[in-house]
Amino acid sequence: MNFFIDFDHTLYNTPLLTKDMLTTLAKYIAQNSSDHYEAILKKLTQKFKRGANNIFDIYKLIAYFSETEYGYDEQKATFVINNVIAKGKKYLFDDAIPFLQYLKKQQHKVYILSYNENEVYFQTVKIAGSSLLKLVNGVFPTITLKGDIPFDFSKCIFIDDKPKDLISIYQKNPYAIFRIRRPNDTYSDLETDLPIPEFSSLNELKKKLEKDEIQK
Protein backbone atom coordinates (compact mmCIF):
# COMPACT_ATOMS: atom_id res chain seq x y z
CA MET A 1 0.00 0.00 0.00
CA ASN A 2 1.07 3.61 -0.56
CA PHE A 3 1.37 5.55 2.69
CA PHE A 4 1.50 9.35 2.45
CA ILE A 5 2.60 10.83 5.77
CA ASP A 6 2.59 14.47 6.76
CA PHE A 7 5.88 15.92 8.01
CA ASP A 8 5.24 18.90 10.32
CA HIS A 9 3.57 18.04 13.64
CA THR A 10 3.19 14.41 12.58
CA LEU A 11 6.78 13.25 12.20
CA TYR A 12 8.56 16.47 13.16
CA ASN A 13 8.29 18.79 16.15
CA THR A 14 7.99 22.02 14.18
CA PRO A 15 7.27 24.33 17.16
CA LEU A 16 10.56 23.25 18.73
CA LEU A 17 12.43 23.99 15.51
CA THR A 18 10.79 27.41 15.33
CA LYS A 19 11.88 28.19 18.86
CA ASP A 20 15.48 27.17 18.13
CA MET A 21 15.63 29.11 14.86
CA LEU A 22 14.39 32.32 16.46
CA THR A 23 16.63 32.07 19.51
CA THR A 24 19.66 31.31 17.32
CA LEU A 25 18.91 34.22 14.99
CA ALA A 26 18.41 36.55 17.95
CA LYS A 27 21.79 35.54 19.41
CA TYR A 28 23.47 36.12 16.05
CA ILE A 29 21.94 39.59 15.68
CA ALA A 30 22.77 40.52 19.27
CA GLN A 31 26.48 39.97 18.65
CA ASN A 32 26.64 43.15 16.57
CA SER A 33 23.73 45.18 17.90
CA SER A 34 23.09 47.60 20.72
CA ASP A 35 19.79 45.81 21.37
CA HIS A 36 19.78 43.09 24.00
CA TYR A 37 19.11 39.48 23.05
CA GLU A 38 15.73 39.41 24.84
CA ALA A 39 14.49 42.50 22.98
CA ILE A 40 15.60 41.11 19.63
CA LEU A 41 13.98 37.74 20.30
CA LYS A 42 10.71 39.46 21.18
CA LYS A 43 10.73 41.35 17.88
CA LEU A 44 11.48 38.20 15.88
CA THR A 45 8.79 36.21 17.65
CA GLN A 46 6.17 38.90 17.19
CA LYS A 47 6.91 39.11 13.45
CA PHE A 48 7.22 35.39 12.73
CA LYS A 49 3.51 34.64 12.41
CA ARG A 50 0.88 34.02 9.80
CA GLY A 51 -1.31 36.91 8.69
CA ALA A 52 -1.11 40.38 7.22
CA ASN A 53 1.94 42.46 8.12
CA ASN A 54 3.70 39.37 9.48
CA ILE A 55 6.31 37.04 8.01
CA PHE A 56 6.05 33.26 8.29
CA ASP A 57 9.19 32.38 6.34
CA ILE A 58 12.51 32.26 8.19
CA TYR A 59 14.53 33.37 5.16
CA LYS A 60 12.27 36.34 4.51
CA LEU A 61 12.45 37.15 8.21
CA ILE A 62 16.26 37.21 7.99
CA ALA A 63 16.08 39.58 5.02
CA TYR A 64 13.45 41.80 6.63
CA PHE A 65 15.33 42.54 9.86
CA SER A 66 18.64 42.95 8.05
CA GLU A 67 17.18 45.46 5.63
CA THR A 68 14.92 47.39 7.99
CA GLU A 69 16.68 47.47 11.33
CA TYR A 70 19.94 45.64 12.04
CA GLY A 71 21.99 45.60 8.83
CA TYR A 72 23.69 42.26 9.46
CA ASP A 73 25.09 39.95 6.79
CA GLU A 74 22.10 38.01 5.42
CA GLN A 75 24.24 35.22 3.97
CA LYS A 76 25.96 34.58 7.30
CA ALA A 77 22.64 34.67 9.15
CA THR A 78 21.18 32.21 6.64
CA PHE A 79 24.18 29.93 7.12
CA VAL A 80 23.65 29.99 10.89
CA ILE A 81 19.97 29.09 10.53
CA ASN A 82 20.65 26.35 7.99
CA ASN A 83 23.01 24.77 10.52
CA VAL A 84 20.11 24.57 12.96
CA ILE A 85 17.85 22.98 10.37
CA ALA A 86 20.57 20.56 9.25
CA LYS A 87 20.52 19.00 12.72
CA GLY A 88 16.86 18.17 12.21
CA LYS A 89 17.00 14.63 13.55
CA LYS A 90 16.70 16.13 17.06
CA TYR A 91 13.28 17.52 16.10
CA LEU A 92 11.77 14.18 15.14
CA PHE A 93 9.16 12.82 17.50
CA ASP A 94 10.38 9.70 19.29
CA ASP A 95 7.91 7.49 17.43
CA ALA A 96 8.69 8.80 13.92
CA ILE A 97 11.61 6.56 12.93
CA PRO A 98 10.19 3.36 14.50
CA PHE A 99 6.89 3.94 12.69
CA LEU A 100 8.52 4.41 9.30
CA GLN A 101 10.72 1.37 9.91
CA TYR A 102 7.62 -0.66 10.73
CA LEU A 103 5.91 0.34 7.48
CA LYS A 104 8.99 -0.46 5.42
CA LYS A 105 9.33 -3.84 7.14
CA GLN A 106 5.75 -4.57 6.11
CA GLN A 107 6.82 -3.82 2.52
CA HIS A 108 4.60 -0.77 2.11
CA LYS A 109 5.68 2.19 0.01
CA VAL A 110 6.15 5.25 2.20
CA TYR A 111 6.14 8.87 1.08
CA ILE A 112 6.36 12.17 2.92
CA LEU A 113 3.62 14.53 1.79
CA SER A 114 4.49 17.95 3.14
CA TYR A 115 2.76 21.32 2.84
CA ASN A 116 4.36 24.74 3.13
CA GLU A 117 2.34 27.84 2.38
CA ASN A 118 5.29 29.88 1.18
CA GLU A 119 7.68 27.72 -0.82
CA VAL A 120 8.94 24.17 -1.03
CA TYR A 121 12.62 25.04 -0.47
CA PHE A 122 12.28 25.42 3.29
CA GLN A 123 10.47 22.09 3.55
CA THR A 124 13.10 20.40 1.43
CA VAL A 125 15.89 21.65 3.71
CA LYS A 126 13.99 20.54 6.83
CA ILE A 127 13.24 17.08 5.50
CA ALA A 128 16.83 16.57 4.32
CA GLY A 129 18.09 17.61 7.75
CA SER A 130 15.74 15.21 9.51
CA SER A 131 17.58 12.10 8.20
CA LEU A 132 14.28 10.53 7.07
CA LEU A 133 15.05 10.37 3.35
CA LYS A 134 16.67 6.96 3.71
CA LEU A 135 13.47 5.60 5.25
CA VAL A 136 11.00 6.72 2.58
CA ASN A 137 10.40 6.06 -1.10
CA GLY A 138 10.01 9.72 -1.94
CA VAL A 139 8.94 13.20 -0.91
CA PHE A 140 6.06 15.28 -2.25
CA PRO A 141 6.33 18.94 -1.15
CA THR A 142 3.27 21.01 -2.01
CA ILE A 143 1.89 24.53 -1.62
CA THR A 144 -1.69 23.42 -2.34
CA LEU A 145 -4.26 21.58 -0.28
CA LYS A 146 -3.28 17.94 -0.25
CA GLY A 147 -6.66 16.91 -1.59
CA ASP A 148 -5.90 18.90 -4.76
CA ILE A 149 -2.91 16.76 -5.70
CA PRO A 150 -3.65 14.44 -8.67
CA PHE A 151 -3.33 11.11 -6.85
CA ASP A 152 -5.41 7.97 -7.16
CA PHE A 153 -6.65 8.42 -3.59
CA SER A 154 -8.40 5.04 -3.58
CA LYS A 155 -4.98 3.36 -3.52
CA CYS A 156 -3.44 5.50 -0.80
CA ILE A 157 -3.44 5.78 2.99
CA PHE A 158 -2.93 9.27 4.42
CA ILE A 159 -1.67 10.27 7.87
CA ASP A 160 -1.92 13.94 8.83
CA ASP A 161 -2.62 16.32 11.70
CA LYS A 162 -4.07 19.40 10.03
CA PRO A 163 -7.87 19.55 9.77
CA LYS A 164 -7.93 21.54 6.53
CA ASP A 165 -5.79 18.96 4.73
CA LEU A 166 -7.58 16.02 6.33
CA ILE A 167 -10.92 17.35 5.12
CA SER A 168 -9.62 17.92 1.59
CA ILE A 169 -8.19 14.38 1.45
CA TYR A 170 -11.31 12.80 2.96
CA GLN A 171 -13.44 14.33 0.21
CA LYS A 172 -11.42 12.36 -2.37
CA ASN A 173 -12.38 9.00 -0.83
CA PRO A 174 -8.94 7.62 0.07
CA TYR A 175 -8.36 3.98 0.91
CA ALA A 176 -7.87 5.12 4.50
CA ILE A 177 -7.11 8.31 6.40
CA PHE A 178 -5.86 8.78 9.96
CA ARG A 179 -5.33 11.83 12.09
CA ILE A 180 -2.39 12.22 14.47
CA ARG A 181 -3.58 14.55 17.22
CA ARG A 182 -0.63 15.07 19.50
CA PRO A 183 -1.59 16.71 22.82
CA ASN A 184 -1.04 20.48 22.97
CA ASP A 185 0.21 20.71 19.39
CA THR A 186 -0.63 23.46 16.90
CA TYR A 187 -3.86 22.01 15.52
CA SER A 188 -4.86 19.72 18.38
CA ASP A 189 -7.74 21.98 19.46
CA LEU A 190 -9.33 22.03 15.99
CA GLU A 191 -12.02 19.58 14.91
CA THR A 192 -12.60 18.04 11.48
CA ASP A 193 -16.26 17.07 12.16
CA LEU A 194 -15.63 14.00 10.02
CA PRO A 195 -15.43 10.28 10.94
CA ILE A 196 -11.64 10.18 10.75
CA PRO A 197 -9.90 7.87 13.26
CA GLU A 198 -7.64 9.87 15.57
CA PHE A 199 -4.53 8.85 17.51
CA SER A 200 -2.39 10.78 19.97
CA SER A 201 0.81 9.30 18.56
CA LEU A 202 2.20 7.18 15.76
CA ASN A 203 2.74 4.43 18.32
CA GLU A 204 -1.03 4.26 18.86
CA LEU A 205 -1.66 4.15 15.13
CA LYS A 206 0.95 1.40 14.74
CA LYS A 207 -1.00 -0.79 17.17
CA LYS A 208 -4.11 -0.41 15.04
CA LEU A 209 -2.27 -1.19 11.82
CA GLU A 210 -0.80 -4.30 13.37
CA LYS A 211 -4.35 -5.57 13.97
CA ASP A 212 -5.60 -4.72 10.49
CA GLU A 213 -4.75 -6.55 7.33
CA ILE A 214 -3.70 -3.94 4.79
CA GLN A 215 -2.79 -5.04 1.32
CA LYS A 216 0.77 -4.32 0.25
Describe the structure.
The chain is α/β, with parallel strands linked by helices and 216 residues long. The protein contains eight helices and six strands. It has helices spanning 14-30, 37-47, 58-70, 74-86, 96-105, 120-129, 163-170, 202-211; strands at residues 2-5, 109-115, 138-142, 156-160, 176-180, 198-199. It has a six-stranded parallel beta sheet with strand order 3-2-1-4-5-6, with helices on both faces. Helix 7 links the parallel strand 4 (156-160) and strand 5. It is elongated.
Describe, in short, the structure shown.
This protein is of the alpha/beta class.
Based on CA inertia axes, which overall geometry fits? elongated
Number of H- or I-type helical stretches: 8
Average pLDDT rating: 93
Low-confidence stretches: none
* Protein structure class: alpha/beta
- The count of β-strands is 6
Provide the succession of SSEs.
Answer: EHHHHHEHEEHEEH
* Terminal-residue CA separation: 4 Å
Main sheet strand line-up: 3-2-1-4-5-6
Query: Helical proportion?
Result: 40-55%
Q: Give me the Rg, rounded.
A: 19 Å
Largest sheet: 6 strands, parallel
How much strand content do the residues show? 5-15%
Task: Give me some keywords for this one.
elongated, 216 residues, six-stranded parallel sheet, 8 helices, alpha/beta
